[in-house]
Amino acid sequence: MRLTTPLGLMAGLALCLPLAAFADAELVETQCAGCHALTRPDYDALDISERAERKGPPLYYAGNKYREEWLVEWLQQPERIWPGGVFAPRHAVSTPEGDVIDEASLPEHVALSAADAESAAKYLMTLRPFDELIASQAYEPGTIALRIGQMNFSKFKGCDSCHRDAPDYGGVSGPELYTAWERLQPGYIAAYIADPLAFDPHSIMPKAGLPPEEVKKLADYLKALSESGQ
Question: How far, CA to CA in Å, does 160 sit from each of 123, 148, 151, 171, 177?
Fold first, then answer.
């Protein structure tokens, strides 16, 4: 799905933004818009098939989602976050042992120069439509025993049916989560667990209706994973 910024809007940005900021926006438009939504899609007009057509995750709330320092590093040396691609059924093939992901069909992300990565990250961090939603979650990072957190993640909540909490264990229809704490802002993690559809109405992650204490346990587990070095 390609969502580009209209020329009129780009011209308007040129009038109200410093030249450097406009250059950052133009870089992101050039490098990212072919695969990522940089403005919110008209979900009311689009049916759920839009989800299957995506080439990359939406970036219109990147400033609410990512840690800037992680973005700068990752854009220079991208590593796959979605083991099955952003829509795993597109890359699944049937075998006698069951469905597997055809890794050869998964696209590689372009690597940016250090300067371009800095510029792109700087602009992406300005995309923050969900500040109030995240603040309303009021998540404060805490601690949880790694073993208890893993049991809650897999056995009690079933998160491993879609996500990996270790490189070689878990589902592939969602992004891996063993590096989630390094790349995602804590407030976003909690707010997205609480209500993924508030961020993305076509998310394949359901709103589970978890109480705040259960949201906190899951977010704290991702923190514990990071601290454990797993």
Answer: 33, 15, 10, 6, 10
